[in-house]
Amino acid sequence: MLLSMGQFPLLGADIYIEDQGLTNGPLLRSLLLSENCLNPMPPFTLEIGGIIDRRGIVPYTAVPVFRDANTPWPFADKDLSLDTLDFGILQSAIGLDGHVRTTGTPVVPQHAVASVGNVAVRPEAAVETSSYSVDASAFNGVPSRDTQRMPYAVNPSPLPLMFEMPSGKNSLLLDSPLFGIGSGGVLRVTLCAADLDEARILYDQLAPICAIMTALTAATPIVKGHLTDRDCYWDVQCSAVDDRSAQERGIVPLTTAKGTLLKSRFGSIDTYLGPSPTSKNLAFRPEINDCQYTYDSCSYWKMKDGGVDNLLSQHVARLFIRDLHYASAKMLGDNNSGNGNRADGNVRSGNVNDNRNGSSGSASIDSDGQEHFKRFLGCNRQNVCLYPPNTSTGSGWEIEFMSLEVQLTDAENAALITFIVLLSRVIISYRLNLYLPISQMDQNMSRAQKINAVKDQQFIFRRDVFSGKDGNSSSSGRIPWRGNVRSRPDPHMPGSPVEQDQFHRHIGIKSPESAEYVELTVDEILNGSPKHRVMGLLKIIQSFLPTLHLEYDVEREVRRQLWLVERRASGKLCTLATWMRRFVRNHPEYKRDSVVSPPINYDMLRTMNDIEEGKIMAPELLG
Amino acid sequence: MLEILDPYNLRNNIQVTGITDYRVSVKIFMLPAAVDANNRPSSMYVKQALLCVEKQLGMVKIDELIVSFAEISANDEDAEDDDEDNEDRETGQLDSSPLESPVGSPLGVLPARTETSSTDSLETSPTAACPEGAITDMSRYVKVWRSLGKLRASGEALKIGISDVNKQQLEQLCRQSGITPDIVQVRMSGNEPQDQGPDDELRAYARERGMFVGAHADSPEMLNDWTFQTLATDFKINEKFPTTEVAPLGYKIDFMRPRWVASYSVMQTKRGLVANRGYIVMASSDCVLNPNRVPRKKYSV
To answer: Which domain of life, per UniProt (chain A) (predicted)?
Structure first.
């Protein structure tokens, strides 16, 4: 039985598979997963080992559990230590190595502390107590940055912190990077761009779509044998591979690290690339890059001096703030020995040939440089990624779209890929303007992962995707809506009231039909909304499709695929996550305590397999 | 002449290095008012449309030239739509009957209604087609179709096509004109399977003869007089483009009526991108008999 699904629901939940093996092994150092889960080949073991060593401790992830009728509340993951010092109510305590420990979120269980002691803990890494919990932002409803402004150690009184980060409570605990790498099935769509300019356009415009697609393709409601309060796996994946050291997370003062890093190495984008300097497109305004991030200044200046423009230099320099976890000796050449495993954040720039500024004299562009850079790109994953050309494989500039969760059937996956590819064609052809401030994009991303976000949540989105290229922030569009011709002020007149406001005030509350950004459901974004004067993305694709002059049958098939996306967006078909939740809750053995027991899991996977093979019909899922 | 252009798709908008294959497609929608003195769709408008496209795009080779006749495409729809369209056509024909196409042509030339026996069927065929909704007589479209054939023969258009016809209409047209299309377009509007009315007969027929069957999503009624008048009023077209002609005694200049719409698209075939896309609408006024005219005095010798 071969299923394509995001995550095995019982991974990490006690005994979930035959010949599971013993947990707490030397490679994974996890209490939930045994060594059998890990491929013993060097790239995989080194990657896992590198993450743990760099962070100083196993990265802990807290996934909020779904509260059902009989769920014990407050929920305590049974893998949490029962020590009152560690759990729940906040108290400071002295940790193993003498550092002040402020607790608030799932604490290192006692037996895990012993295993940490087996690893050479570097002096600056405190005994880890609070993991970076990605869910704080979702609960607080503010962008994730806000909760990280103060390094914890600076805050004298630990009590307010607990309220700042409540998400440690009522959560499931995951304790291995393996929950992030190698799990969390993502449909990666790689689009080839003609040149760097087009790649930048695609990168920027596909980024706001990520949250929408995450909500649309939600497929992972069950983690570690429990129903969770999330339908998507993105946040879990990002925090499971979080290799930031304690300094970078702001827990202890900065000594050797380069700076505080606000996001895990997997995360949503930090900055738009903006159009190329020669482009006449004025849709991008610098103020929409409104989030802080740290980047490596040496690399930045090197690129700037080489003629690369500001935003692109920053984007690439952002990559070099992270470290590789391993490198083959061949890649390192003869200059350095040992592997790239380090936690002090210094970039060995001598090792890496920056081959991005091909225009200036980067003296030797040899293939090792490309390999190195590709590895760095592999370390950093955002929801859209930009890959430079690779002379050895002959590929050009590529954009990889990472926000689709893998679906059950091949037909659905194909439909999603078709949608993304057609969307990219439309974006390039019609030069759509989907720019959204980064902070609002992050907010969308956290909303997208909630339960049934595709129907219940609203996302901030640009109302008029055709306007804005002439630099006017006004968004009433060129052609006035019928019936309002005389009453509308001329949007191109300077001093027009709509133009002068800050963009964040354009979230339409009073006048949704003229605001720049409005809160829309996925249905409205994709299928259009006359009320908001939103032309849906699917409608735009539909109008674009005939120009391709496809053969009749081909076009019919493509339209059928778009129809699937249309119905998922409108809610006529449910997402896989909703389907799974429904199945569990309707199962006779389910006790309404959010626990998915092995029999329930078995039946569910069996049913999913039958659906995939066509033995069972699932009209609510597939139409 | 009105050009509805998409200003964000300038010709040089996409800068691509390297060789790119472009495909230029033009589709001409012959509206009900695009008729000549014999009340048949006039091939002059086809030439006019191509000139306008050339003016817009430059000297490009047209890869695909497709024509769509408003009456036929409208009649392809359900009966409800047919009734509306028939009314439009009737009023259209009444208005256009006593006059010539462009403003300024000699007046007083009445259409020769009794020229050929087929003209009787010209007047009656649309209205008689109400019950079933399909036009059975394709003879009035032969002239335009032949002109397209000439364009293909001369090399100005690589492929020609027709859209929204059924099998009988296509057969008749090919037989009467001796010209077979390269492309047949069928309407496919929405994404739902039932929207894609399967015209298997037509598709099988077309495939047998090596014609490419494509799909389009254009509305069956591209632009009717009423919509045009509403737009003209909103955008003050009548004021911005006043006619310089003076109507002779007893006649008046009628409202502008849209004659044809041409949609052009330039595609980068290998990458599936649109390089340029736009619509051109041509409208003109007719000189009609003024209903309020003073009757001529009769002089007796």
So the answer is: Eukaryota
What is the pLDDT at residue A491? 42
- Residue A412: which of A542, A568, A521, A556 has the closest Cα? A568
Per residue in A491-516, pLDDT tens?
Answer: 443 433 333 334 444 454 456 566 78
CA-CA distance, B280 to B49, in Å (whole number)? 8
Of B94, B83, B77, B84, whose CA–CA distance to B39 is shortest?
Answer: B94
| CA–centroid distance for A16 within its chain | 27
Q: Rounded to a whole number, what is the distance in Å from the CA of B192 to chain A's nearest CA? A: 6
Q: In chain A, which residues have their Cβ closer than 8 Å to the Cβ of B22?
A: none
Q: How many residues does chain B have?
A: 301
pLDDT tens digits along A227-283 = 999 999 998 888 888 888 888 887 788 888 778 888 888 888 888 998 888 877 778
User: In Å, how far are A5, A188, A252 from A175, measured between CA atoms?
Assistant: 21, 25, 21
B213 → closest Cβ in A194, A548, A551? A551
Return the bridge partners of B197, or none: none
Give the amino acid at B216: H
How buried is residue A444: exposed, middle or buried, by Cβ count under 10 Å (0-12/13-18/19+)? buried
pLDDT at residue A137 is higher than 50: no
Measured at the CA of A387, the angle between CA A393 and CA A297, to 5 degrees, comes to 130
As given in the structure block, the two tokens for residue A441 are: 């994009």
Contact A549 B196 (CB under 8 A): no
Of all residues in chain A, the one with the smallest CA distance to B264 is A547
Nearest by Cα to A600 from A616, A583, A614, A576 = A583
On whether the CB atoms of residues A303 and A358 are closer than 8 A, the answer is no
Partner residue facing B214 (CB), from A194, A195, A552: A552
Contacts of A198 (CB under 8 A, 6+ apart): A397, A428
Of the candidates B14, B191, B214, which has its C-beta nearest A559's C-beta? B191
Strand partners, B260: B30, B282
- Evaluate whether A404 touches A189 at the Cβ level (below 8 Å): yes
Percentage helix, strand, coil for chain A under 3-state DSSP, each rounded to 5: 35, 10, 55
CA distance B228 to B96: 17
Helices (H), A56-120: 110-116
CB atoms within 10 A of CB B244: 7
pTM of the model: 0.77
Strands A398-405 and A384-387, by their bridges, are: antiparallel
Say if strands B62-69 and B22-30 run parallel, antiparallel, or are unpaired. Answer: parallel
Task: Check: CB of residue B159 under 8 Å from CB of residue B189.
Answer: no
Number of A to B CB contacts under 8 A, please give it: 80
Residue A192 backbone phi and psi in degrees, to 5: -95, 130
Poorest-pLDDT segment among A167-171, A359-363, A388-392: A359-363
